[in-house]
Design goal:
The protein is an alpha+beta fold. Helices cover about 35% and strands about 35% of the residues. The chain is built from four helices and nine strands. The two termini are about 35 Å apart.
Length: about 140
């Protein structure tokens, strides 16, 4: 795994996941494979029948040797099948969000796991925190 959006599972209720490729330049691909990618605060949108990833940061491979037109936060196209895009399109229109969960390498290619998600309310987030704390207390009791 290259990068993970840890906050996504806390802020959103995950309903369905998809895996797709990401279009990168050579400089970005090498940097991403080294783990210099950040998905926190990023999201995906539907634009012109294609899905694009916004606000994901891929840091420069070599700071002094970066291309002149290199942008860390540029919009990147995601590669999904037409069937998946149609399915996502229908659900996005009904109020869901498309959030990246993690980036990983599969057969030498950088892949992104996307999730169709619904935003949690503040009370749901508090409930999640309470569950997590009670599980920790139980684990501490078991260890003693």
């Amino acid at each position: 795994m290259i990068a993970e959006n840890k906050k996504a599972r806390f802020d959103y209720e995950i309903l369905e996941t998809f895996v797709g490729g990401i279009v990168l330049t050579g400089h970005e691909a090498k940097s991403a494979k080294m783990g210099r990618m950040d998905l926190s605060g990023s999201h995906a949108i539907l634009r012109g029948g294609e899905i694009h990833l916004l606000n994901s940061s891929i840091h420069s491979f070599q700071k002094g040797n970066a291309p002149k037109d290199f942008e860390e936060l540029r919009t990147r196209k995601l590669l999904l099948s037409k069937k998946e895009i149609r399915e996502i399109t229908g659900k996005l229109q009904s109020g869901f969000s498309l959030v990246p969960l993690k980036a990983f390498i599969s057969h030498g290619f950088v892949k992104i796991e996307l999730a169709l998600a619904r935003g949690k309310k503040k009370s749901d987030k508090r409930e999640t925190i309470k569950k997590r704390e009670t599980e920790r207390e139980i684990q501490r009791g078991v260890r003693k």
